[in-house]
Backbone:
């Protein structure tokens, strides 16, 4: 049997397999006569997008297949490794291979929540309220803990009572923006997973 | 990584310390296996546990956790004593020939320069001797054996002079190292690490061969080396070994960190880190009033006439271009480009410091974005207490975390916790575009595949919207020095909803006169006419387009990998300048010929008068035949790799120190067992240190990770929870027999700080080690469980056991070496 490539199988498989197709794959013609397989690719007609695995820092290149649902929204139907990638050549580990489950999870947080001091539960909050409340608190903390000049009279312009931590799972551009905004607010306590 | 994942396939020997790539980076590991299968490379795995990586390695060395500096020290000694180092590389490309100042000393575990009161070293005392003025500039560094030069030392000052170079001088770096590492005999290595002498020598022989120019070894590591109070020095010890062997800068070589998260590299590059600004510029310090002050104190100085000192010489250009990006027209020559708008920290403001400040009542609010403090620790019980002292906590995440739920964790009474908690639902990676930079510095742009669900929002929109609201409050009400907030440039179509594409262009940078995006950071200036959000990413999004989107890969290797070295230069984009292997000038000899013609990094093409191959980490047209051509390590003040270095806080040469909680006294210097420069957070804050001794806590614990889980988020992924459903601790068979523990039994593991009650997994993956004559057991603790996830319950946190202390230089916590006790429940 000649060496099969993935492309060969897909080429032959799409839209139905005729006898000739099966013998092109090298199967015994008698067996092929006995069975006729109609096979449709799950990803038939899907749009292919390029992404990168969200888990470790190997950075496996992935292909994500979506199809428009009846309501016009894109539905994710498949994630697999990108065979063209010099990094992973189409392979994925168990985490990457199950990344779809991370993406489409019923456990996702759906709306902003607020827990008051001493309270026993969260309450739902609108984005507008959440951001307004946070903006007030950020300003108040900055105004209360800002040090313009230190004890030696040096201009330091730092906010000592606020901290931002995180970001290893978001993109460069988001991370850069976080740094830019937090430094503009005067933060010195700025950290992420790199430290720990 | 100095190199990259696919490059590992080019190695002859793969040395893995403090990492378990078969399980933690499985797909990256295929390149290790290809090296083995395709070129007959050998693989050595040095790890306290026998893991799947060990199973396919040629040799597994069981090592006591936290003792890799002794292991590397032993190899350095072996290589030096037996003259197996790459002689020409060491003479020409490292600072081996630099003469160290006569004030330098090392006695009984103490380097010179220690201040007993502040309990800190002053690294500037670890300097070179300056040569007499008027000395001749030599052609080479030490190739002819002797040379004397003119000028500059590392310390700042108007009368800078270069370092004296003389490889035969008793205080040359090389000779100091010979004496320093002479103590790291195979017997001493065995006493400290538990690795039997014969096994060590077997490895030493294999490693020693790698000093040949036609051989190359890659050093790979992960958090097994970083998660220690001595992490920086352990890693540096590996790098020093690699320099001696001539493996830095070469395909198949280098010092390669297997990082943990999808974009931890990128966000380190983008400086979500207290002590840096984007592109690894230092954060300004109090007392610096001008850009000139800042550069004077932050940038490296030339220590050799042929050193390019590229970073040092261009430091100001990178800072000014960053300030122009952030403050636009508000950053002018007259106001030092708004230099004072940058906050200057008083002191260390790293991760542990945040929670230390919270405990002291100084922290009002904390944002946690895709990171859960409660689980990641260290000293999780103390972290929970710290969170309870905040006025408010804002968690930005796509799924609930132990931090968003800390206030009602098992055993916590919510009515006693006054912290306000905001939880903002974040989108996932697949619901936005933007780039991720992997461990190999390759930055790949990803498409937005899905629309956000429900009311989830992008992290950057949350932050931008929040900032815009804060700005509006300042506009209306005024307040403390609003200028940096008001003046910040937010040149996006919608400042509350910036597009990642807009930000990527900003990061690349512009020629502000022409309005065109820059091709290279070589065009950045300090006169306010250029901008760049992050100079190391300049060139990633040029006028030709977003280079990080490129996808020309393995389906056409002839076209896309013409050298056959696996560079694939048109797949995505790597920083800096799309270079694949850093320091690659050192991959060729002083005449421009690759040390190993079979595996060339770059080589001098005399016909074209250019360096060809990978993107040269060097002036592309600098003729190696010119005696004034720069030394290969263009970023350092020396122009060379640094065997001796004042870059770390706890010593200029790596030395073995014990973990803070150790079963033995340091056999090298029992009076100074652990590093004296380690910062004791609890003690410094007036709280008692909580460190256990081996009498009460006889076993050495090390925390680790499983393939099927990624930190804590995968507790929400059903398939992965099914594969690894329940928390456990790994106990060596012999110890389990002693304690009558069988697999499946519930056990209690506890340290001075906290306890964990979980199932036991009895294994021969862990075994006893004999440390300085004492039988010592390791216990392995996977980190992944907590009280949030599909299988929720009262399960507590692995990090409740770890100590609230970090590395002397970088303050990374000592997660992987602490003392515990164990009993069957």
Residues:
């Amino acid at each position: 049997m000649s060496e099969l490539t993935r492309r060969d199988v897909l080429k032959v498989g799409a839209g139905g397999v005729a006898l000739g197709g099966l013998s092109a794959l090298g199967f015994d013609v008698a067996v092929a006569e006995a069975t006729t397989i109609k096979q449709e690719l799950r990803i038939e007609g899907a749009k292919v997008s390029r992404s990168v695995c969200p888990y470790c820092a190997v950075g496996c290149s992935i292909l994500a297949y979506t199809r428009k649902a009846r309501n016009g929204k894109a539905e994710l139907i498949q994630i697999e490794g990108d065979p063209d990638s010099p990094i992973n050549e189409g392979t994925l580990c168990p985490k990457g291979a199950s990344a779809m489950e991370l993406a489409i999870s019923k456990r996702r947080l759906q709306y902003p929540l607020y827990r008051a001091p001493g309270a026993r539960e969260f309450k739902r909050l609108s984005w507008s309220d959440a951001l307004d409340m946070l903006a007030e608190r950020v300003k108040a903390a900055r105004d209360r803990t800002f040090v313009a000049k230190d004890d030696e009279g040096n201009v330091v312009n730092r906010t000592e009572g606020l901290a931002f931590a995180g970001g290893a799972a978001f993109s460069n551009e988001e991370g850069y923006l976080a740094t830019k905004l937090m430094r503009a607010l005067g933060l010195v306590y700025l950290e992420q997973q790199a430290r720990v | 990584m100095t190199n990259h994942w696919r490059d590992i396939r080019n190695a002859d020997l793969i040395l893995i310390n403090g990492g378990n790539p078969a399980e933690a980076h499985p797909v990256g590991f295929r390149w290790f296996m290809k090296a083995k299968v395709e070129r007959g490379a050998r693989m050595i795995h040095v790890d306290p546990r026998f893991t799947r990586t060990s199973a396919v390695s040629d040799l597994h060395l069981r090592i006591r956790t936290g003792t890799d500096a002794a292991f590397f020290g032993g190899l350095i000694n072996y290589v030096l004593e037996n003259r197996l180092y790459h002689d020409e590389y060491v003479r020409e490309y490292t600072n081996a020939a630099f003469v160290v100042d006569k004030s330098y000393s090392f006695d009984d575990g103490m380097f010179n320069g220690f201040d007993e009161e502040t309990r800190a070293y002053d690294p500037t005392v670890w300097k070179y001797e300056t040569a007499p003025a008027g000395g001749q500039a030599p052609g080479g560094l030490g190739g002819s054996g002797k040379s004397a030069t003119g000028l500059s030392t590392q310390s700042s000052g108007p009368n800078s002079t270069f370092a004296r170079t003389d490889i035969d001088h008793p205080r040359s770096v090389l000779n100091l190292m010979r004496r320093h590492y002479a103590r790291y005999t195979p017997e001493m290595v065995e006493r400290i690490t538990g690795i039997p002498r014969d096994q060590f020598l077997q490895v030493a022989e294999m490693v020693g061969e790698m000093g040949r120019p036609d051989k190359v070894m890659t050093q790979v590591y992960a958090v097994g080396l970083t998660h220690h109070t001595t992490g920086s020095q352990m890693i540096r010890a590996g790098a020093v070994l690699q320099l001696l062997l001539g493996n830095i800068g070469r395909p198949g070589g280098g010092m390669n960190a297997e990082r943990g998260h999808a974009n931890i590299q990128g966000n380190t590059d983008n400086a979500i880190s207290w002590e840096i600004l984007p592109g690894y510029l230092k954060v300004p310090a109090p007392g610096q009033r001008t850009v000139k002050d800042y550069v004077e104190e932050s940038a490296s100085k030339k220590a050799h006439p042929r050193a390019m000192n590229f970073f040092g010489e261009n430091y100001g250009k990178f800072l000014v271009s960053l300030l122009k990006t952030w403050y636009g027209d508000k950053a002018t020559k007259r106001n030092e480009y708004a230099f004072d708008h940058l906050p200057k920290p008083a002191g260390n403001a790293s991760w542990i410091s945040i929670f230390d400040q919270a405990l002291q009542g100084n922290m009002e609010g904390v944002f946690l974005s895709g990171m859960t403090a409660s689980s990641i620790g260290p000293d999780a019980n103390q972290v929970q207490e710290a969170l309870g002292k905040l006025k408010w906590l804002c968690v930005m995440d796509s799924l609930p975390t132990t931090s968003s739920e800390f206030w009602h964790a098992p055993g916590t009474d919510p009515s006693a916790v006054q912290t306000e908690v905001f939880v903002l639902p974040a989108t996932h990676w697949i619901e936005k575009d933007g780039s991720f930079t992997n461990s190999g510095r390759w930055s790949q742009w990803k498409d937005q595949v899905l629309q956000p669900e429900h009311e989830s929002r992008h992290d950057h929109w949350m932050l931008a919207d929040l900032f815009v609201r804060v700005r509006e409050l300042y506009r209306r009400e005024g307040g403390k020095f609003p200028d940096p907030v008001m003046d910040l440039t937010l040149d996006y179509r919608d400042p509350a909803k910036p597009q990642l594409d807009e930000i990527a262009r900003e990061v690349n940078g512009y020629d502000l006169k022409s309005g065109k995006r820059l091709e290279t950071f070589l065009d950045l200036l300090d006169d306010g006419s250029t901008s760049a959000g992050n100079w190391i990413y300049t060139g990633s999004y040029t006028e030709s387009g977003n280079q990080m989107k490129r996808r020309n890969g393995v389906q056409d290797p002839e076209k896309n990998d013409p050298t056959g070295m696996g560079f694939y230069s048109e797949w995505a984009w790597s920083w800096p300048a799309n270079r694949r292997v850093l320091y690659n000038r050192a991959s060729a000899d002083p005449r421009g010929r690759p040390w190993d013609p079979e595996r060339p990094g770059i080589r001098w093409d005399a016909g074209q008068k250019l360096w060809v191959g990978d993107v040269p980490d060097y002036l592309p047209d600098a003729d190696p035949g010119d005696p004034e051509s720069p030394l290969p390590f263009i970023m350092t003040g020396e122009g060379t790799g640094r065997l001796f270095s004042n870059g770390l806080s706890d010593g200029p040469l790596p030395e073995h120190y014990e973990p803070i909680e150790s079963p033995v006294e340091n056999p090298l210097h029992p009076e100074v067992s652990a590093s004296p420069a380690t910062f004791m957070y609890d003690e410094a804050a007036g709280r008692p240190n909580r460190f256990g001794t081996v009498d009460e806590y006889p076993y050495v614990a090390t925390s680790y990770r499983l393939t099927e889980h990624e930190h804590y988020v995968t507790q929400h992924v059903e398939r992965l929870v099914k594969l690894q459903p329940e928390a456990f601790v790994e106990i060596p068979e012999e110890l389990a027999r002693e304690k009558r523990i069988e697999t499946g039994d519930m056990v209690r593991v506890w340290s001075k700080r906290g306890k964990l009650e979980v199932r036991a997994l009895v294994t021969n993956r862990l075994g006893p080690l004999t440390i300085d004559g004492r039988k010592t057991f390791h216990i392995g603790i996977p980190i992944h469980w907590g009280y949030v996830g599909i299988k929720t319950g009262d399960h507590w946190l692995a990090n409740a056991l770890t100590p609230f202390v970090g590395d002397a230089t970088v303050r990374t916590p000592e997660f992987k070496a602490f003392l515990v006790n164990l009993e069957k429940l």
Q: What stands out?
A: Chain A has three domains: 1-41, 47-103, 113-191. DSSP finds seven helices and eight strands in chain A.
